[in-house]
């Protein structure tokens, strides 16, 4: 079974289980770290989130999300998710988009063909450089959305954990 088909089925199931529609509003309180699993942080609902130290050091996954965003997403969505003439401001979209909706949109794509303002988000469910790092992309954009991460490359980041290395190797086939 193609990876994209599996990923779409998992994200659809996740959306049903989480039960979060796109009417939710994300903010600093909702994005607060509630748990830490070897440097991978989650909020009180179990959704991936970021951790930024008082000195500006970001967690590895936020930094990785920045790197992946700039290699795969900024060509359409603009630097730092600030949007462009043909793709939305992701730093705004994530304020109301659930984690499950994010996964589903990135994996399966989206079309908005109305009012002569056609926008098409391609599906990235078959692109390992995206789907292996979807949580990283999410936490990076979430940090931007709630205003905790300024524009530009994070100056400092935590080291990559052994768990992150293992997950990457497993997904990328290494």
TrEMBL record:
Residue stretches of biased makeup (Basic and acidic residues): 155-168
One Pfam assignment: Cytochrome_CBB3
Protein name: C-type cytochrome, methanol metabolism-related
NCBIfam families the UniProt entry points to: 4cys_cytochr (TIGR03874)
Annotated ranges, domain Cytochrome c: 60-145
Annotated signal peptide: 1-25
Region annotation (Disordered) ranges: 150-174
